[in-house]
Amino acid sequence: MRRFSVLFAMNVALGTTVFMHSAFAAKPSKEPPADVYMKPSQDMPSKDEAPLSGKIVETMNSGGYTYLCLEKEGKKTWAATPEMKISVGEEVALQPGYEMEGFTSKTLNRTFDKIIFSNGLLSKQGSIDVKSFHAGTMGGKGAEATAPATENIKVGKATGANAYTVAEIFKKRAELDRKAVSVSGKVTKISVGIMGKNWLHIQDGSGSAKDGNNDLVVTTQDVPNVGDVVTASGIAYKDKDFGSGYLYSVIVEEASIKKQ
């Protein structure tokens, strides 16, 4: 956990620019300024804790953003997302984001004591699945997408000295710990902007769901689409514990993604 805390702190320091240029890149607005104090508003939610959610009691669009005030159990929280269509009275849940203190919106001519900048909706007028933070179906463009569960995936092994199949990475996870690896496969799921990174599920047809060695989680700053066949090159870690019950026997981190 100490290693995760250090990495997370570094991620926050570096993530401001990444977050604003990836989540809000389509909008020309200069808000929010990079020098505004920013901190992660939500760590991984526990199994009994829902993400930021509530009823929308106030909302407006300005400068390429949707500002919304959520009320839950008498507490009101301001948040901002890329511009979208929502209405007062709707119940929504937001993806984890970053909290900014003393943020002034020039287009609104308004200062917020605290506001959370989020990638967008996690749920709308429906139930919230905490597991979706890591195993959810957030597509590269914000749409829900997953590869069919029964799809027969067959992707050839990557090339090079550090190339492995998905099943091989699981089998050799002890000897591959903290070493560079490359793996090719099909992106079956993606969750964007969680803890300052994107979470991919990659399968190549090796291994089996029964044995739990057919689906590899990869973290990256790149954003492929579900269904893309890619080669991921990163660092393998065994027994990576992110807390709240999210323990991976093996995971590939800091990966660069190349579409085939």
Q: What is shown here, in short?
A:
The chain has 260 residues and is mainly beta. It folds into 2 domains: 2-130, OB fold (Dihydrolipoamide Acetyltransferase, E2P); 166-259, OB fold (Dihydrolipoamide Acetyltransferase, E2P) (Beta Barrel). The chain has helices at 2-23, 132-135, 166-171, 173-176; strands at 38-40, 53-62, 65-72, 75-82, 91-94, 97-105, 110-118, 121-124, 179-194, 197-203, 216-220, 229-241, 247-259.
Task: Walk me through the structure.
The longest helix has 22 residues, at 2-23. The model is unreliable at 1-50 and 125-150 (pLDDT under 50). It contains four helices and 13 strands. It has an eight-stranded mixed β-sheet, with helices on one face. The chain has helices at residues 2-23, 132-135, 166-171, 173-176; strands spanning 38-40, 53-62, 65-72, 75-82, 91-94, 97-105, 110-118, 121-124, 179-194, 197-203, 216-220, 229-241, 247-259. It folds into two domains: 2-130, OB fold (Dihydrolipoamide Acetyltransferase, E2P) (Beta Barrel), CATH 2.40.50; 166-259, Nucleic acid-binding proteins (OB fold (Dihydrolipoamide Acetyltransferase, E2P)). The radius of gyration is 19 Å and the shape is elongated.
